[in-house]
Every structure is written in C-alpha cells, then in structure tokens.
Amino acid sequence: MPLTRKIKGCTGYVGTVSQASIFGGIMYELNDVVEMKKPHACVVKQTGKKANAWEVIRLGADIKIRCTNCGHIVMMSRQDFNKKIKKVLKKASENN
C-alpha cells in the first residue's frame, strides 16, 4: 500500500497525495526494486554478471536507492533518477 499524506487546499478541501511518482509511464514508489540503465560495479556471485537491481529507500526531492547485491547506498536528485531509471522490476505491493 503506498504511503499517502493528507493535504488541505486553499478552498478547505482535504485530499490525499500518494508518495508514488510517475515519469514517462514508469510509476515507482517506496520499497520498489528498480533497474537502472547502467549496472553497479559489484558482481553477483551466482551469475558472474554486474548487479543492476536497486531498492528505493527514500522518496522526496532527492531519491535514495540501495543495491540489492552489496547494500551500497546512492542518493541522487529526482531529476537524475528519472533520467537513469530503466524499469521497475518488483513493486512494493507485491512484496507484502
């Protein structure tokens, strides 16, 4: 279930805003596993290939992602993240 916040507009209307983000048809939210355009430098032992799966651990003006193989954390601006994301591998709602 995506995280939501209540907002109050100038007319007094109270609505909710999801923490999910949409860019170019790709929707991602907190705890999603995403694939980036360039792989990480660490190598997966079973396959011998470079790891390319990242978990989204913070959403805001900046986005923080963690490598699912080695645990390395990278923080980048939302604009950079939107340029570098390739696709969502696993949705957070599927993990529960």
Please give a structural write-up.
The chain is mainly beta and 96 residues long. It has one domain (21-95): SH3 type barrels (Roll), CATH 2.30.30. Helices cover 11% and strands 45% of the residues. The protein contains 2 helices and 9 strands, in the order ββββββββαβα. The protein has helices at residues 78-84, 92-95; strands at residues 4-8, 14-18, 21-23, 26-28, 33-36, 53-58, 62-67, 73-77, 85-90. The chain is globular.
Secondary structure layout plus pairing:
Blueprint: E1 4-8, E2 14-18, E3 21-23, E4 26-28, E5 33-36, E6 53-58, E7 62-67, E8 73-77, H1 78-84, E9 85-90, H2 92-95
Antiparallel strand pairs: 1-2, 3-4, 5-6, 5-9, 6-7, 7-8
| CATH C-level category | Mainly Beta
String of helices and strands: EEEEEEEEHEH
| Total of domains | 1
- From the N-terminal CA to the C-terminal CA, the straight-line distance is 9 Å
| Structural class by secondary-structure content | mainly beta
Numbering strands along the chain, what is their spatial order in the largest sheet? Answer: 8-7-6-5-9
Beta-sheet strand percentage? 35-45%
CATH fold call: SH3 type barrels
**Largest pleated sheet:** 5 strands, antiparallel
Oligomer: single chain
Poorly predicted runs are none
> Helix proportion of residues, in percent?
10-25%
Architecture per CATH nomenclature, i.e. the level-2 architecture: Roll
Mean pLDDT score: 79
- By DSSP (H or I, 4+ residues per run), the number of helices equals 2
Which radius of gyration do the C-alpha atoms yield? 15 Å
Global outline: globular
How many β-strands, per DSSP? 9
